[in-house]
Write a structure and sequence with these properties.
2 domains, binds NADP nicotinamide-adenine-dinucleotide phosphate, 19 helices, Rossmann fold, two-stranded antiparallel sheet, about 475 residues, 10 strands, N-(1-d-carboxylethyl)-l-norvaline Dehydrogenase, domain 2
Length: about 475
């Protein structure tokens, strides 16, 4: 679309950590951006720090001025706190908008809210794009991964700007329309769920090294740095290595040793698990990671538990570093695989017709879960997921055959040593179950029939669908 006079090509409301960085990113790509924030001080701070990019920014202190500064159809990115704030902001904007204008919510919205907003706004002639953005502040400034959901015509109006600001992998922008209405925010939610699992699994290996082997933070950090040159290469391993080697300026200790072991959560991990349960999918590694954060908050209970149940020493084989590296890779693959199965189920359920190969491609750079493995996953998804299971694809099957023994050894030895590995255990249980043609649900079916006459299917196709219980 051509520039119209000095009007801004796109508008951005919300100049917090993400919004301010995104505004500078878009400006750097040569687009004129109108910027607005509820509290005007943030507009001034952005302009003061924008340097030569200030010429591409149009600061607007009132909504009327902001909307008036935009070329038509107007495209406005909201980068504000998720939830009620988004509804309030939309309500405030609506009187200023015309039919055909486009609103883009770049926050971490619950995709159910996005679907509702898309429906409500469509009734007023406004197109709504729910846009998941991953990459933190650094990504927002220099190129995030972007997962959009919404009408194709709206995407066609804005995709040049969105792709320009996105990260690139081998020159290809990591931004795509993954489906209609809530699809983008759903994919972002699952991305965060996978992120929860990956972070937890890394923390579990850290726990084995710290508590099982008695190693210092920096020596663990160095090991992670080495692993980052191999198949575990990823942003999360890289930052873990750096975090572990960083000292606290106040005490001189390693900073992780002075941080409370209570982790926060804002909801996306929990939403992933809730949606998995609703869709009849198992996201057990992600669920274990969410549970681990819940338990982490129970500091006083855990301290009490430690005194009530002192250790009971058992013999456990030593855990080799090489096994830990491979176990983490196997568990990571299973975490990703659960996320992909969930996206497939959601796409079928909501009729999103989502191309999961595109999702894998746009996660290869810019986002928090970017990793060397994602390139392999992108290939695997493109080649097809037999039975909707990523782990059955030839490339990942080979990876799991190389690493599954290590996952089993690490989990079993950690359990004997009373070291907590909930996410890796969940990943292992999922994997072992998926490779067991005959499970034990026949007994569960018999129990259900015994007490509730729920009936069962017979393996010989026989007609008697109830047991002869007495
Ligand atoms: N931080 C990350 O790494 C990250 C990554 C991906 C996505 N996100 C998502 O991106 C969104 C913004 O996150 P952030 O980290 O940039 O947040 P932030 O730094 O806390 O900034 C919050 C922004 O929301 C605005 N806001 C809050 N309540 C509002 C309301 N009722 N009406 C209008 N504006 C309101 C604030 O305006 P005031 O200045 O007036 O308070 C501020 O501009 C969130 O949905 C977040 O989940 C964050």
């Amino acid at each position: 679309m051509a520039e119209t006079g000095n009007k801004a090509r796109i508008g951005l409301i919300g100049l917090g950590v993400m919004g301010a960085n995104l505004a500078l990113n878009i400006a750097e790509k040569g687009f004129r951006v109108a910027v607005h924030n509820r509290t005007p001080g943030r507009i001034r701070s952005l302009m003061e720090g924008a340097g030569e990019l200030a010429g591409h920014l149009a600061p607007c202190e009132t909504l009327a001025d902001f909307v008036d500064t935009l070329q038509k159809p107007r495209a406005i990115i909201l980068m504000i706190k998720a939830g009620r704030a988004v509804d309030e902001q939309i309500r405030a904007l609506l009187p200023h908008l015309d039919k055909g204008d486009i609103l883009i919510d770049g926050g971490n919205a619950d995709f159910h809210d996005t679907r509702r907003r898309a429906r409500e706004l469509a009734g007023k002639g406004i197109d709504f794009i729910g846009m998941g953005v991953s990459g933190g502040a650094e990504g927002a400034r220099h190129g995030p991964s972007i997962m959009a959901g919404g009408p194709v015509r709206a995407w066609e109006e804005v995709h040049d700007v969105i792709k320009a600001m996105a990260a690139r992998f081998n020159g290809e922008p990591c931004a795509a329309l993954v489906g209609p209405d809530g699809a983008g925010h759903f994919v972002k939610t699952v991305h965060n769920g996978i992120e929860y699992a990956d972070m937890q699994m890394i923390a579990e290996i850290y726990g084995i090294l710290r508590d099982g082997e008695g190693r210092s933070a920096d020596s663990i950090g160095k090991l992670f740095a080495e692993w980052n040159d191999g198949p575990l290469q990823s942003y999360l391993i890289e930052i873990t290595a750096r975090v572990l080697q960083t000292r606290d300026p106040e005490t001189g200790q390693f900073i992780v040793d002075v941080i409370e072991d209570r982790a926060g959560q804002k909801g996306t991990g929990r939403w992933t698990v809730i949606e998995a349960l609703k869709l009849g999918q198992a996201a057990s590694a992600i669920s274990a990671a969410v549970d681990a954060r819940v338990w982490s908050a129970m500091k006083e209970a855990r301290k009490n538990g430690e005194s009530l149940f002192p250790p009971q020493k058992e013999f456990a084989p030593a855990i080799l570093e090489a096994d830990m590296e491979k176990a983490l890779l196997a568990a990571r693959i299973i975490g990703y695989a659960q996320g992909f199965s969930l996206m497939r189920a959601a796409s079928d359920h909501h009729e999103w017709d989502m191309d999961l190969a595109v999702v894998a491609r746009i996660w290869r750079a810019g986002c928090i879960i970017r990793s060397g493995l994602l390139d392999e996953i992108a290939v695997a998804v493109r080649e097809g997921m037999p039975h909707d299971q990523l782990i059955f694809s030839p490339a990942l099957r080979a990876r799991l055959n190389e690493t599954r023994g290590s996952l089993r050894r690490v989990v079993s030895s950690a359990v004997l040593q009373e070291l907590q590995v909930p996410a890796m255990s969940a990943a292992l249980a999922c994997f072992e179950t998926l490779r067991q043609g005959r499970g034990t649900a026949n007994l569960v079916q018999a129990q259900r029939d015994f007490f509730g006459q729920h009936g069962f299917e017979r393996i010989d196709g026989g007609t008697d669908r109830h047991g002869p219980w007495v």
